[in-house]
Design a protein that fits this description.
Helix content is 23%, strand content 38%. The protein is α/β, with parallel strands linked by helices. The protein starts with a strand and ends with a strand.
Length: 238
């Protein structure tokens, strides 16, 4: 294995082959980049995390409670969780992750943000299926069933239409969104990352469940392609 490339972990998972790798990008002066692949598809890269940060910042921007209890669906490389914890009003954070290996990367220090997240007493990882927990009456906190939260920030599927698994689809329908809304405090926020442009039918579905809903286009520079790329962050409020 050369110094410019290392496969840090490889696992067979229910969703497919999961790989964590680190490489140096010669075109970017040898910048060290961490990447996660599921099968042949890239799930995330440390080179692009502006939208993961925007998910936290847009989702929490309108909340004014003195102490916020937040759920992040999907741990990944940890950028949404890190951005959430930078908000001083965040009192507690539960990060729900279906793949035990991803939690292990952070606990073992295999990824850059691992020690920061595991060292923050406000942050706790829950190994579980976000979508099953959202549909259950138990909620996201196994230590306190039925607990309600001020915000739920979701970054798992590529978009409401481009899913990692077909069984996730029911969550993005009115009944599934209603189950999530029931787990929020009054005035609570649900925010969702999507790699696709704004989806007006999905915005309409959100507005049928939540008091308000809007789609924010987040642009960021792609240094490899030398152009701007865009993603979407949906923000809905009870």
């Amino acid at each position: 294995m050369s110094a410019s490339f290392a496969e840090l972990d490889y696992r067979q998972t229910p969703l497919g082959e999961l790989t964590l790798r680190r490489r140096r990008v010669a075109a970017l002066d040898g910048l060290e980049v961490y990447e996660v692949k599921l099968g042949d598809a890239f799930l995330m890269s440390s080179l692009f995390h502006e939208v993961e940060v925007a998910l936290a910042n847009l989702g929490l921007a309108r909340l004014d409670a003195p102490e916020l209890d937040v759920v992040v669906g999907g741990l990944g490389l940890g950028y949404t969780a890190q951005a959430t914890l930078k908000h001083p009003t965040v009192h507690s954070l539960i990060v729900v992750e279906a793949l035990e290996a991803v939690i292990g990367w952070h606990e073992r220090g295999l990824v850059p943000l691992g020690s920061e997240l595991t060292g923050d007493p406000r942050c706790r990882f829950v190994h579980g299926d976000f979508f099953a927990l959202a549909a259950s009456g138990r909620g996201f906190d196994p230590a306190q069933p039925g607990r309600k939260f001020h915000a739920v920030l979701l970054d798992i599927d590529h978009s409401p239409r481009n899913l990692l698994h077909a069984r996730h689809g029911a969550f993005y329908e009115p009944a599934g969104l209603g189950g999530l809304a029931a787990q929020l405090q009054p005035g609570g926020v649900f925010a969702l990352w999507s790699d696709d442009p704004p989806d007006e039918p999905f915005v309409a579905a959100l507005r049928g469940v939540f008091r308000t809903a809007e789609a924010h286009v987040v642009s960021f520079h792609n240094p490899l392609l030398e152009r701007e790329s865009c993603s979407t962050v949906y923000v809905a409020r009870t």
